[in-house]
Amino acid sequence: MLPWMDAHCHLTKRFHPDPLPGVLQSLHEAGCQGFVLGGVDPLDWQEQLDIPPSPVRMIRGFGLHPWTVQERDDAQLEQDFATLERMLPQAGALGELGLDFFRVKPEPERQKQSHWFERQLELAAVRKKPCILHIVRAHHEALRIMKAFNGRVTGLVHSFWGNHQTAQSWLDLGFYLSLPPRIVKHDNHALLHYVPADRVLYESDSPEVFDDGAASDPRLVLDIMKHVAWSQCIPVDKVLEQQNSNLIALFPELNGTH
Fold first, then answer.
1. Crossing angle of helices 139-147/107-127, nearest 10°?
2. Residue 200's domain is classified under what CATH number?
3. What is the pLDDT of residue 216?
4. Which of 16, 155, 236, 243 might form a disulfide with 130, Cβ 3.0–4.6 angstroms?
5. Using CA of residue 144, residue 148, residue 151, residue 154, what is the dihedral sign?
6. For the chain, what is the domain count?
7. Exposure string (b/e) for 140-170, b if CB count within 10 Å is 16 or more?
8. pLDDT score of 122
């Protein structure tokens, strides 16, 4: 079986209780070639920098998650944004950033999320960093904001779950769509047909918590890709190879020869 990669996970101490050297070694032994981390706040960004060196390649993502934006006042967010500007050169991506209108209902709070979303997108455009987007029940507003950037920002929409029209709108903007673990609950889901193979990604979103309370690690993405291969009656290696190719296209640092 080919080496494999995970398009989105969280492996800092806050999210993963096991000692990281052992986790990274087990991933390497399982064939993991690389993964993309989503960041949520300055403490998480620093913990990403503290992850020990490993044969498994890593893309750090530094961003102000919409839940962080929801929890903090604007004065604190201004300080966090200044920290993001300072630390971003040490990251391969800006994210997670985005809108989560499932968590936030009042219009002023949604406007606050939109404001900090736009601030971070502008920073990504200036610094030329791909973005890791967290968009929940807010694709219409996120697409409206994104279109104003006129192709200056690209990246991936993590845990994408939407209809054909929404998917096509993101694809038209140059984004990759990263499908969540729940894709395994569906045989041959329509998403596997209307997202082109060269623009789809798969993620563990580790530590994904299952119904029994157990938490996953990035190896879950291997099970997801095996399910996709089974659903589409294609070899597993074909899915793994396309995943690796797509992630390297978006994050060249994941290429072992880069």
1. 40
2. 3.20.20.140
3. 77
4. 155
5. negative
6. 1
7. ebbbeebeeeeeebbbbbbbbbbeeebbebb
8. 98
